[in-house]
Specification:
The complex is a heterodimer of chains A (308) and B (380).
Chain A lengths: L1 H4 L9 H6 L2 H25 L3 H6 L18 H8 L3 H32 L5 H10 L6 H13 L1 E2 L2 E2 L10 H24 L4 H9 L4 H12 L1 H17 L2 H7 L8 H10 L1 H4 L3 H18 L1 H10 L5
Antiparallel strand pairs in A: 1-2
Helix pairs in contact in A: 3-16, 5-16, 6-9, 6-12, 6-14, 7-9, 9-12, 9-13, 12-17, 14-16
Chain B lengths: L1 H14 L6 H35 L4 H28 L3 H34 L13 H6 L3 H33 L5 H9 L6 H9 L13 H8 L13 H27 L3 H9 L4 H12 L1 H16 L3 H6 L9 H11 L3 H32 L1
Helix pairs in contact in B: 1-2, 2-3, 3-4, 4-16, 6-10, 6-13, 7-10, 8-10, 10-13, 11-12, 13-16, 15-16
The chains are: A mainly alpha (308), B mainly alpha (380).
Chain lengths: 308, 380
């Protein structure tokens, strides 16, 4: 606001009047925005200040000496990425998140196509069951899945299920696929089912198989729905701590970012000075997604809000 | 496994040159069938071998990660392509009745193994002992409703359910109304409030641990204590002040969820028909009355959806408590107890019983939520 005062617009008659118009609303909005920003700004400042200073004074003292260069450093970021293993954890997060996003979307898209455009016995009832599974919270699945992963036991009976699967990326992909599918099928069926039937029928008449129709017609037409679910699922998996903790917990090699950050926080005293940098590394990718794909992001999160 | 593939493809090649005939047709059917079986088996074996390599490899992490991503992403496409290939080689009369199952099959199998089976098994395990070896009746449920820590967790979760959705929805609604009246900067202001939605619970907890930070000696580096001591008061260890520490943790959730409430409520406010509002104004209603008697009633069902959605989220809150206080100093919540008992203390029965209680608590909320959500979808 202050920067504009000197600008040419200021010469316009009534500019100050406009500026002060509805000032209580503007003040209230600005106060809330600042309150919401303070925690993140404080963390950002701390992540770039040297250890001696972050330990001796609050981050807000930066406002009295922003140009004292000796207080700034990038060391925390490099030390977190290397010595504290956040570089590896970042890669692990990618290895967990990308397939755990692509797999459920693919499976759900195929299933949604069948639920919308193919004839088979039990179509309606199966769809209702799939969507009904939305109410199952993932806490309900953790114990039996961990048993299945570690011992191959299914209802306490040994099975040929390949094990031990815990401590592998695959364990987390499959778990996230299971937890994400009901919502994905629900959303994608709503979308794919509402595509005009004339398109699909004319493609059938032209001799296209269901597989061709799906790949060449349905997928391109469903990009908006696929994108919003993809973003929702990507953030859900990237930010997930619980599933990673339970299924990757004992294996340091495959530790993801949220685990690494929680562990670092657990040793609070010792690594307090690098904790802000570590937190920003875990937040970097979701924030980038947020800023670059905000429209899909909002749509995805609001559509995904019914996840059980 | 590779043998199966060899025979499958070899025989397949040979058939192209054969003359037509009844016996040949049967042979052709067999060949088709073999090819149909071989392709998925080979694809699956190849994927499995790669996966085994991934598990044991000491290779560079970047290589492992790239291979893992390729296996996951390409693997799922190969799966469907291979199944479609298979079906196309089945006898014609089977094809169209099997094909739908190729499309829905994987979803049903995954859901059965990774969601339906565990849910049923969890209910069963909740009647067994710590190591799931023998029945102990309702003992675990007795524990859930008598143990001091569990009772505190139920009390605290009720507190979370009341405080977080109410405050988030109130601030979100207020902010949506205010920002709607601005001529400029609406999008920027909204995205700043929405931004914490992109952050993980663990990340948000770390962000806020620097607000609540407490030092016994020296300068206070936590913002709250910084402000507190500036007024001359003694520094406070905020996260160990029972029961107020629960409120501190709830603030984190409010910070994260308000953006969600704001975005949805803002869209609802904008969709209230302008002529109803105008009509109320012409009838002499004040802005205040318009808001309470026209806007609020017309967005009531959206408010219910927002609140119930947040209640479900709050019921499952775990990370914040786990990271901030580890469930100590009277900050237990139900979902955190579940992990504590099952994962930390290795008591499957109690963990399962807590999960079942959580599930039972979610069902009615989910029912309201989905009903309202569907009603809204129909209006749109």
């Amino acid at each position: 606001m202050t920067a504009r005062v000197g600008a040419p617009v200021a010469a316009e008659p009534g500019f100050f009047k406009k500026l002060w118009d509805r000032w209580p609303i503007k003040v209230a909005v600005i106060v809330i925005v600042i309150l919401w920003l303070i925690p993140t700004v404080g963390l950002l400042v701390s992540s770039f200040r040297i250890k001696a200073i972050t330990e001796a004074e609050g981050w807000w003292t930066v406002f009295s000496k922003p140009f004292q260069m000796s207080q700034w450093t990038f060391d925390h970021y490099s030390s977190v990425l290397d010595a504290r293993g956040f570089g590896n954890a970042f890669l692990n997060s990618l290895a967990v998140t990308i397939p755990a996003t692509v797999i459920p979307i693919t499976i759900a898209a195929f299933a949604s196509y069948a639920f919308s455009w193919m004839e088979f016995k039990g179509r309606q009832i199966l769809f209702v069951i799939v969507v009904g599974l939305l109410v199952v919270p993932l806490q309900m699945a953790l114990i039996p899945l961990l048993k299945l992963y570690t011992s191959g036991e299914f209802f306490g009976i040994g099975t040929p299920f390949p094990h031990p699967l815990n401590g592998t990326y695959m364990a987390v992909w499959l778990a996230h696929t299971g937890f994400g599918l009901p919502l994905a099928v629900y959303l994608l069926r709503n979308y794919i089912g509402s595509l005009p039937s004339s398109i699909i029928e004319s493609a059938r008449i032209d001799g296209a198989t269901h597989f061709q129709i799906f790949v060449r017609l349905i997928v391109p037409l469903s990009v908006p729905a696929l994108a919003s679910f993809a973003i929702f699922q990507f953030l859900w998996v990237w930010n997930d701590f619980l599933v990673a903790l339970v299924f990757l917990g004992g294996t340091p090699d495959v530790k993801v970012l949220t685990q690494a950050l929680a562990e670092l926080r657990g040793q609070f005293g010792q690594f307090e000075h690098v904790l802000p940098a570590a937190a920003f590394i875990t937040m970097a990718l979701p924030l980038a997604v947020f800023f670059s794909l905000q429209r899909y992001f909002v749509r995805g999160l609001t559509a995904g809000s019914v996840k059980g | 496994m590779s043998d199966a593939q060899d025979t499958g493809t070899k025989v397949d090649d040979r058939t192209d040159n054969l003359p037509e005939g009844v016996g040949v047709r049967a042979g052709l059917g067999l060949v088709r069938f073999l090819a149909a079986v071989a392709v998925p088996v080979v694809a699956f074996t190849a994927l499995w071998l790669t996966f085994e390599w991934l598990r044991n490899a000491d290779a560079n992490r970047i290589v492992i990660v790239i291979v893992a991503v390729l296996v996951g992403v390409v693997g799922i496409f190969i799966l469907y392509w291979g199944m479609d290939f298979t079906v196309n080689r089945l006898p014609e009369s089977w094809r169209e009745s099997i094909r739908p199952w190729v499309f829905v099959g994987p979803a049903l199998v995954i859901l059965a193994i990774f969601l339906a089976y565990p849910a049923i098994n969890t209910i069963y395990l909740s009647f067994l002992d710590a190591r799931s070896e023998s029945f102990n009746g309702l003992e675990n449920y007795g524990f859930v409703f008598t143990d001091a820590g569990m009772l505190r967790s139920i009390r605290n979760t009720l507190g979370w359910i009341i405080v977080v959705p109410t405050i988030s929805a109130a601030i979100g609604l207020g902010f949506a109304v205010l920002v709607d009246k601005l001529r400029r900067g609406e999008a920027v202001a909204k995205s700043i409030i929405f931004l914490p939605m992109a952050v993980s619970f663990v990340g948000a907890s770390v962000v806020w641990s620097f607000i609540f930070d407490f030092k016994i000696f020296g300068a206070q580096t936590g913002l709250l204590n910084g402000v507190w001591t500036a007024f001359g008061a003694d520094p406070v260890s905020w996260l160990s002040q029972e029961p107020w520490n629960n409120l501190m943790l709830m603030v984190i959730m409010v910070w994260m969820q308000t953006g969600f409430a704001m975005v949805i409520l803002s869209a609802a406010i904008k969709s209230v028909p302008e002529d109803i509002i105008e009509a109320a104004r012409i009838d002499g209603a004040s802005e205040f009355q318009v808001f309470w008697q026209v806007v609020i009633p017309s967005i009531m069902s959206t408010i219910v959806v927002v609140m119930t959605t947040m209640v479900i989220g709050v019921l499952k809150v775990f990370d914040i408590v786990f990271v901030m206080t580890n469930g100590e100093t009277g900050t237990e919540v139900i979902a955190e107890r579940m992990i504590r008992w099952f994962f930390r203390n290795g008591h499957n029965g109690r963990g399962a019983a807590i999960a079942v209680v959580l599930f039972l608590a979610i069902i009615p909320v989910m029912y309201i939520n989905v009903r309202r959500f569907r009603a809204e979808e129909e209006i749109r």
